[in-house]
Amino acid sequence: ALAVERGCTSIMIDGSALPFEENVALTKKVVEMAHACNVEVEGEIGSVGRNESLEGENAVSLYTEPEDAVEFARLTGVDALAVSIGTVHGVYKKAPKMDFERLAKIRSMIEIPLVMHGGSGLSVEDFHAAVSNGMNKMLLQIYPLQLQTKSWKCLSRFRRRQLLDPYMKLR
């Protein structure tokens, strides 16, 4: 609600760690509030965890099921949907196992924009395949964040406080 009050024109709600029904209920509530203020909402279904979460035999169970994506979009009214097709947040320890067939199936069943979280470090070929199979938006951050963190550590504690004080007053 605070993001909407402060003028954001789109927001993201991630209830993907919740059971399906709870994710739907939470996301639907956020969509109703946001749409009343002409704010778009991105929801998330499936799991975009860290490297460890998509390793091993159970990794595929964390991917978005196409039928669940359709039902989630229908029940919540989200404007965009983040789906799990094998990416993770953070730096890849090894190449991800992207499921582009799953993405293509989801795209064929849903008309709203699809979003990929955890795109930092993917190959150029993976980006091309994601777009070719229907991905509309990709979130990348880790490399600029690493540079920012290194720069931040170089600042003295006093200077960091000077930079943050104006923002702390907004709370």
How confident overall, as mean pLDDT? 81
Q: How many whole angstroms does the radius of gyration measure?
A: 18 Å
Report strand order across the widest sheet: 1-2-3-4-5
Query: Would you tell me the structural class of the helices and strands?
Result: alpha/beta
Main beta-sheet strand count, sense and barrel state = 5 strands, parallel
**Order of SSEs, N→C?**
HEHEHEHEHEHH
* Shape category: globular
Which range does the strand content fall in? Answer: 5-15%
Individual helix count = 7
Q: Which regions are unreliable across 5 or more consecutive residues at pLDDT < 50? A: none
What is the strand tally? 5
Helix content: 40-55%
Q: Span from first to last CA?
A: 13 Å
Detailed description of the structure:
By secondary structure, the chain is of the alpha/beta class. It has 7 helices and 5 strands. Strands 1-2-3-4-5 form a 5-stranded parallel sheet, with helices on one face. Helix 2 runs parallel beside helix 3 and helix 3 runs parallel beside helix 4. The longest helix has 16 residues.
Walk me through the topology.
Blueprint: H1 2-5, E1 10-12, H2 20-35, E2 40-45, H3 66-76, E3 80-83, H4 100-109, E4 114-116, H5 124-132, E5 137-138, H6 142-154, H7 157-168
Parallel strand pairs: 1-2, 2-3, 3-4, 4-5
Helix pairs in contact: 2-3, 3-4
